[in-house]
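Blinded run. Sample ID left blank on purpose so nobody reads anything into the name before looking at the predicted structure. Input follows.
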Amino acid sequence: MSELLVTVRNIVKSFASGTETLYILKGVNLTVDRGSMVAISGSSGSGKSTLLNILGGLDRCDSGSVRVGDTTITGLSEAALTGYRSRRIGFIFQFHYLLKDFTALENVMLPAYIAGMKKKDALEKARSLLDDVRLSDRLQHYPSQLSGGERQRVAVARSMVNDPDLILADEPTGNLDPQNSAAVTEILYRGAEKWGKTLIVVTHDDKVAERAMVRLSLDAGFLT
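Blinded prediction complete.
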């Protein structure tokens, strides 16, 4: 029997726009099995990134509940959410957000080191992950010395360094050309499978979505 990792119940999210209130999410429900890979598609502005940010504890919903593993994150304090993000979530964004003054190896190891892992162990884990994303020959390169695809592969490795339960990827190939997009897509899904991670990716790219076990669409504030 599959184990549920993510349970979302009736999530509502709105934003003020001048004198009116815009409802982006109108009652989203979602369950994700541990180890599953889910792709969420939808038009620009449909709320895909908003939903992902709520799941990752970067944003709060107006109402509803989000449970990840044994933690109900809705209602947690900011300090508790910071701990949740550090321990349980790996983020990959459309832009890589690598630290420009740190090497690829240092960018990947840093979250683990900050979380309390010994430096030697964090470096060893980072080397292993960079090898998995085919960058073992780029360990000492700075972001400015890497291609766009290579930088995004470093970001994939970094997302897994703290052994999170859940990887959240927000348009991870959105800034890449078709060749690099295909490479990053392959590495993302293969890495999630190898490391036993649950993956939720939001994307406009059918080639990214078609690799998922489950494909969903967010439209008019509802997930189908």
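Unblinding after everyone has recorded impressions. The helical segments are 48-55, 78-88, 104-114, 119-132, 148-159, 178-194, 206-209.
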